[in-house]
Amino acid sequence: MSGDYEAVIGLEVHVELKTKSKVFCPCSTEFGAPPNTHVCPVCLGLPGVLPVLNKQVVELALRAALALNCRVAAFCKFDRKNYYYPDLPKNYQISQYDLPLALDGYLEIDTEYGSKRVGIIRIHMEEDAGKLIHEGEALNPGKYSLVDYNRTGVPLLEIVSQPDMTSPEEARAYLEKLKAVLQYTDVSDCRMEEGSLRCDANVSVRPAGSTELWTKTEVKNMNSFRSVQRALAYEIERQIGLYEGGEQVVQETMAWDEAHGVTVPMRSKEEAHDYRYFPEPDLVPLRIEAEWIGRVKEHLPELPDARKHRLMQDYGLSAYDAGVITASRDLADYFDACVAAYPQAKTVANWLMGDFSRLLNSYNLEPRQAPVSPAELVELMVMIDRGKISGKMGKTVLEEMFATGKKAKDVVAEKGLAQISDAESLRPIIQEVIAANPGPVEDFRQGKEKALGFLVGQVMRATRGQANPALVNELLKESMN
Amino acid sequence: MSISLEEVEHVALLARLELGPAEKEAYTQQLNAILGYMEKLNELDTENVEPMAHVLPLANVFREDEVKPGLAPEAALDQAPDKHDNQFRVPKIV
Predict the structure, then answer these.
(1) Rounded CA separation A462/A283 (Å)
(2) Distance, CA of A239 to CA of A7 (rounded, Å)
(3) Which phi and psi angles does A155 have, rounded to 5°?
(4) Would the CB atoms of B91 and A145 count as touching at under 8 Å?
(5) Contact B94/A148, CB-based, under 8 Å?
(6) Which of these ranges, A95-99, A128-132, A292-296, A405-409, has the smallest mean pLDDT?
(7) Cβ A164 vs Cβ A195: under 8 Å
(8) For residues A303 and A184, is the Cβ–Cβ distance under 8 A?
(9) Across the interface, which of A57, A147, A285 has its CB nearest the CB of B53?
């Protein structure tokens, strides 16, 4: 970004709640079912039906509200948001308008300048819409769309931040943190690829240091945290470019085009923003007693920041290591399971942040889906400690464990990777190496320490890397002196 | 407050209603009569009256989070004017 401007970014995040059934009817919320198999008269909006609120939706919404430091409204209600679009069978979405569930919260994020508080304006409950599949392809569009109403009525939370973020990196840090909090509290899976977390951004620029707000645009259609960051970076540059060229930014909705790396104006739905909200007559309001709030608060699980500090305090991990491990509840749970059986926390952290994470990424797995259980990873670390295999071998063994699902000791036995740690098997090889390399042996005897490294390398080569290097070192010195 | 013919046309468009000239005229008059009655209500002092969210004096009506089977796709799509592969088929609107 040019030094003369700063960005002003606010995010609007929708997350699907982890309930078994939909918000106003008992249909399943399961993802990926065949089209229109999780539908009933209520979510299809057939005449004469009545919605009834799922209590667990309020429970999870309260959990999110409290974990995000919001003030919970003592009284709230649902409203109808009216618009015509085929993903909405009733032609209105049940949402909350002027009396949302929760207000005025915040989320602490880590930035390059230290910790920063991003305000949360409001959190409200609503129902998700259905899924449209457009027939035809981009170059040869069809005339029809197909509608699947399985997702219609899946409970959603809309979480609206203050425009407190000033860079794409901060926006991403906010999303990562929000995801962690919602996963820790079991409010949502937050799987962007399955659409259980979606994000729109409001973005404008202004002269650096100014407090005025210039015209903003809304950016949609971002399908990953990375694309949010890229789309914002592009949009900020686009707006600065307009001002620099003497033009103005037009308030409009832009779609992020991932393939071309650009934002393009969306064709606006005519009159789309005239929603004519009014109170939902089919649902009675909510009165949330202090006792209910107290109970939810008391049962809130440990949140990411608290867990990070616990890892630093109890295990002496650095702020960085603890931050990486606690960014995902899954990985933090995996870490806890490992250290319960193997107390060398730093070693566990190194494995988890290094090869383990690398392998998870390459197989596109979450820690809980890893083919290697915490107990199996501990076994591997113990084998290294006992000198059965070298640390370098350990990496190969872990790769093989991921690929085959086998245990460390079976991989080691099958591949012949066991480390040679008994002096008697190594002595004949050492004698051979000494006999074959009189030059370096003489150098070593003259005090050239470097020559020892060469000789160790020769032994390692002769044993295909299986010799215990520390032992080889010791035996070589012993034989040459 | 009164409502103009243009506003009636706008509201009709939002509700996807196609109105003829005579209907537009009639609805403009009727809506103005209704709004006129609201003006009458506005004469009341409602300073200390809480806005009503619902006609029933009830709150917190819930169901438990339990899954029950809904409709079979064939039944769900039975009345659809157009369908394909167990999905509703509609004109494309982007």
Answers:
(1) 78
(2) 10
(3) -70, 140
(4) yes
(5) no
(6) A405-409
(7) no
(8) yes
(9) A285
Pairing of strands A102-111, A53-54: unpaired
Q: In terms of C-beta density within 10 A (0-12 exposed, 13-18 middle, 19 or more buried), how is residue A342 classed?
A: buried
CA distance A86 to B83: 13
Q: What rounded mean pLDDT belongs to chain A?
A: 91
Domains of chain A: 5-293 (no CATH), 301-415 (no CATH), 423-480 (1.10.10.410)
**A87-133, pLDDT tens digit by residue?**
999 999 999 999 999 999 999 998 888 899 999 999 999 999 999 98
Contacting B residues, span 33-72, partner chain A, CB-CB under 8 Å:
53-56, 58-68, 70-72
Q: Mutate which of A16, A18, A146, A270 to disrupt the B interface (most B C-beta within 10 Å)?
A: A146
- CB–CB contact B67 A25 (8 Å): no
Closest CB to B76: pick one of A39, A54, A279: A39
Sorted by where each starts, the structural domains of chain B and their CATH numbers stand as: 1-46 (1.10.20.60)
Distance in Å, alpha carbon of A204 to nearest chain B alpha carbon: 26
**CA separation for the pair A251, A203 (Å, rounded):** 10
Strands A53-54 and B62-63, bridge-based pairing:
parallel
- How large is the ipTM? 0.91
The backbone torsions φ and ψ at residue B90, rounded to the nearest 5 degrees and listed phi first, read: -130, 155
pLDDT surpassing 60 at residue A271: no
